[in-house]
Amino acid sequence: MHIVWVLMLEVVEREGWTVLQSVTLDFTSAINGTPYRLAIALPLSPPPEGGYPVLAVLDGNANFGTASEAMRNQSLVNPAIEAALVVAIGYQAKSITEVLHRRYRDLTTAAPPERMAPGDPYIGAANGGMNDFLRVLLEEVRPIIAARYPVNAARWALFGHSLGGLTSVRMMLAQPDAFAATIASSPSLHWNANAVFEELGGFEATLGRARRAPRLLVTVASDEQAVHPMTDNAHAMLARLSLFTGANAPKTSFHLFEGETHDSVVPAALSRAVRFAFECGV
């Protein structure tokens, strides 16, 4: 004989789980008219002298939770990792398709339409909004955060994956001193027939005007090479950057994640980004 005891528990359904000590800020850009949503994870420790460093994360709708937990977990248990404020840049949207179409526009330069398979969620999305989006980051997102939180203006880091990685690289090429560290995870350097490489032609002059040398980490998943030449393009970009010399010569690093794909690699890349950007003494 089996007796089954049933516990009479009150179960209440509420809104989804949220990151501890986090808030969202909504604004509509005066630059490109897009309704953005910033997700902010505040450090659990008081701000240091000079203010918190900041990790700015692109594709915030997808990456906020992973980024904030990677930051907190490492800074709480490893005294060598500085606690940073996480700012994930996402969108006010009612569907995943809306998010994807907005990111596709923001994270690409103008290019001929891509050939897409039937059912691709990017079908119908416009491209070419990256230059305006870089302005949104510098002229709107950063002032919004600086007005509300004690942050260190000189200690911002930028993380982007895929098209976000391409965007991060272009930010560094356009304004090498805008971010203290740049992390490009699986950057889509192949976009528009590798057009980003053409921008290296004017990089020497841009470096000469910079206030500090840029730091760049490029990470790639081993299984990506079969789909796009991610590894080859990453090595080609780093080889070109190594030709620049002088006080502001780029300080670059590379890491290959074995056994990972373009989609599975993001948590590992964010974990590595935290160490690269905020390890003390680096």
Give a verbal description of the structure.
Helix 7 links the parallel strand 7 and strand 8. Helices cover 34% and strands 20% of the residues. Strands 1-2-4-3-5-6-7-8 form an 8-stranded mixed beta sheet, with helices on both faces. By secondary structure, the chain is of the alpha/beta class. The mean pLDDT is 93. The chain is globular, with a radius of gyration of 20 Å.
Q: Tally the structural domains.
A: 1
CATH superfamily, called what?
Answer: Alpha/Beta hydrolase fold, catalytic domain
Structural class given helices, strands, pairing?
Answer: alpha/beta
Termini separation comes to 66 Å
Helix content: 25-40%
Number of strands: 8
Strand content: 15-25%
Radius of gyration: 20 Å
Shape summary: globular
Task: State the CATH class.
Answer: Alpha Beta
The DSSP helix count reads 8
Q: The biggest beta sheet, please?
A: 8 strands, mixed
CATH topology term: Rossmann fold
